[in-house]
Each structure stands twice: as structure tokens, then as C-alpha cells.
Amino acid sequence: MRLAVAAAAFSLIAAAHAQDYPKRPVTMIVPFAAGGTSDVIARVVAEEMTKSLGQPIVIENVAGAGGSTALARAARAEADGYTIAIGNAGTSAATYTIYPKLPFTPESFVPIAVVAKTFGIIALRKDFPAKNLQDFIAYAKKNPGKVNLGHAGAGSSNFLICKSFAQAAGIEVTLVGYRGAAPALTDAIGGQIDGVCDSAASVSQAIDDKLVRGVVVGSTVRLATLPDLPTSAEAGLPDFEAQGWNGLFAPKGTPAAIIAKLNAAAKAAVESEAVKKRFHDLSTVAPDANEHASEVLGQLVTRDVEKYRKLLEEKK
């Protein structure tokens, strides 16, 4: 009886807390350095979510270990809705295979919402000898292990783009990890590395400005912002698929009513004209109408944990 009364009292307190939420700024942890895909998407979405929540969302960049440093920080946070994190297929699914002794599991988080869908691109330094994808694959096969491609760290979605691409192309390349997509791209522009595996959101402008040369996008259709960049099928590599996602998560135990408020704010944000326009410019798309529920994000995590376990264990 006492337990039932205590549980009822706790539920009432939690409901009252959720009704007043948020009373102060919310921190959104981004698991990479500023300037990369997750960071850019987080800032675009957070700015619009602020309008619904009535409180600012403060971005906190926590780079390191392919995003697992940031997710560990998020998992330890108070489950009160004032600390959330943005994740992707790398940080929230593949990381469990890459780093099997992490201090958190998928169950350490509650999914809030899918906020973006992204497309992976392979881009080369502008003076690389290969001019198209087939030339690049041929070059890499003649020079096994000598071509180096940068990514945002083992466990990042960009790392998975690299792994998926190398497997589909049947090539051996050297993968170079950075503390985010932006520093990797900077080195590709400067010629310190041969190219990058990156999301269209962070690399499309550099391609458009001819600072790097895009050779393929892992999508079924061409991107409106990069109409000359061939899809994987058009470029002769149909097995290369690199369509990813970004989602928001909260620590386990965050009250359902607060998750619902955050989900509603995220939905309103990605449906806004401001975010749609910015996403278009970033070669990114918002989730479909049937993808807004928090359960959809949970299903993506479950699917991709298994998907990337198979991909990564095949290469061990």
C-alpha cells in the first residue's frame, strides 16, 4: 500500500515538473567539434525548438572517441530534460560494436525524435589524380593502403560511410580519424589527406566552391544542391548506400511528459519553413510525417546496432 501511495505521489510530482518544463535553458550535447554535420543540424534545429519551448537551447560540443565521450556525459546527466544529446547511426548504434566496453548502452537513453536525414559523399582533394569514381577505385586498387580518407572519428557516421564505401568498392584504404568532420575537411582542402567521407550537410559547400571534388553520393537520387554529383548507381557502385539520420536523445528516466514536450518542439522545428529552407541548402531533408514519433528513432537505433555490427565484424 505504501509503495502504491509513494508511486502515485512520485507520478504527481513528475507531472507537475513536466507541466512547468522548461524553466531554464536546455543543454544539447553535440558529440563532435563545431562545424560538422551533427553540429550544424543541431544548431539549426535548436534555434527553432527554442521558439516552442520558450527557453534557449545551448549547444555544448564534446568531441572525442567518435562521439562516445559526449554520449557518456549525456548518459550521466540528470534525467530532468535539461540535458539532451544529438546522435546518429555512428554514435548511437555502431559505437557499441567499435567500443564494446562503453559505460552506457542503448537502454541508457530515451529517444526523443528523428530530426534529419542525411546523405554520405566521397570527396577528394582537388588535385587528386582520379577525376571520377571509377578512376578513383582503379587507383586505390593499384595502390592498396596508400590512399587516405578522413572521417570524424571511429564510431561517427562518417566513419561508417568510409567503411561502407571501401567494402562496396572492394578497396583497401587508410582511414584517418579526426575530432569532427570540419577538421577532416580542412585537411582535405589543404591537401594533407586524399579525401573525406562526409555528409552532404558539411561538405556540399566545399564541393560547390571547388575546394574538393565530389565523386559520388550514396543516395538513390541526385541532390538538388549538387546536381552534377552522380549517385552510387550512376557511378557504377550500386552497393554503396549511405543515407543516415540524426536524432535527439535524453537520459534514461526522463519523464514521458517532458519527452513529449521535446518531441513536439522538434516536430514543430523540422516542419517550419526556416528549417526546411536551411536543410535544403545543406542537402539534408527533414523526417517524413510518419517519422516524427519517438518510437521511430528507437526502431532506427535497434536496426542500426545490428546492421553495423555485421558490417564492422565482417572486416575484423
UniProtKB/TrEMBL annotation:
The lineage of its organism: Bacteria, Pseudomonadati, Pseudomonadota, Alphaproteobacteria, Hyphomicrobiales. This is Tripartite tricarboxylate transporter substrate binding protein BugD. It comes from the Bacteria. InterPro entries: BUG, Bug_dom1. Belongs to the UPF0065 (bug) family. Gene3D superfamilies: Bordetella uptake gene, domain 1, Periplasmic binding protein-like II. PANTHER family: BLR1237 PROTEIN, TRICARBOXYLATE-BINDING PROTEIN. Keywords: Signal. It comes from Bradyrhizobium valentinum. Residues 1-18 form the signal peptide.
